[in-house]
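User: I'm putting together notes for a lab meeting next week and I want to include a structural view of one of the chains we've been expressing. I don't have a solved structure, so I'd like a prediction I can at least talk through. The sequence is below, exactly as it appears in our construct file.
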Amino acid sequence: MKVQTSTLKQNISQKWAITLCYEEQEKLEPRVAQIIEYLAQNCEWPNEWMISDIDATGRCGDRLTKKGNNEEVLCLCTSDLLSVLNEEGQVIELDASLVKNGDEVFKILIRDGVSVDVLGSGEVMPLSVLGKYVTVDKSLFLWC
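Assistant: Thanks for the context. Below is the predicted structure for the 144-residue chain, given as structure tokens.
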């Protein structure tokens, strides 16, 4: 896999998938929060996140984990999702989709508190937002 060093220009209907690369001792939550903040500032539609899986520590994280265990899907606004990412604690599992007109347009997947995959539609976000990443096969996520 090749590490990307610049923003890719793509057709608006094209989908892409990446995995974030981390420096030693870097926490994933600030990187994910930066991506979510960028989407909140640059999307023309309301930011409603559909959470189908969450396992997080911290006050907000524990509350949402318990709520998610009782409900199949949680709907969160951006500020609620950022509360989990910005608090003291860790996000161990997350499956969050940004929805527009009933269609997933962005998806963030955190696995085992280590791996972060970002799936998107249209142009890839700027390198200044994503940081280092590798491009992965979008079909692995059924993101076609």
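A couple of points you could mention at the meeting. The first strand starts at residue 3 and ends at 4. The helical segments are 28-42, 59-70, 78-86, 127-130.

User: Perfect, that's what I needed.
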